Amino acid sequence: MAGKKQGGSLGDLVKAESMIQLAIALPAGCVIGWLLGEWLDRHFHQSWMGLAGIVLGAIAGFFQIFVTASRYLKRDD
After folding, report:
1. Which DSSP category does 49 fall into?
2. Are 64 and 72 in contact (CB under 8 A)?
3. Share of the chain above pLDDT 90, in %
């Protein structure tokens, strides 16, 4: 019985870690995309790449949320 209780606690920590990933994925993707876009703006002397970086970062963040959520839902089955 002790093994089941310990596994349950570990399972709760894994679920909490997954939820933290969901909370961080979108903002982190946007910030990383923005920073990369700003660097490309300076490198290629353009003014639109920062905005494109934010959009691509948001798409990557949503994709990461989808992957993490689908993995979490598969564990519950």
Report:
1. H
2. no
3. 51
Asked if 66 contacts 29 with a C-beta cutoff of 8 angstroms, the reply is: no
Q: Is the pLDDT of residue 76 over 80?
A: no
59 contacts 32 by C-beta, under 8 angstroms: no
Task: Count the neighbouring beta carbons within 10 Å of the beta carbon of residue 20.
Answer: 11
CA dihedral 12, 18, 23, 29 (to 10 degrees): 160
pLDDT at 50: 93
What is the model's pTM? 0.74
61 neighbors 25 (Cβ within 8 angstroms): yes
Give the whole-angstrom CA distance, residue 75 versus residue 22.
Answer: 16
Query: Is residue 37 pLDDT above 60, yes or no?
Result: yes
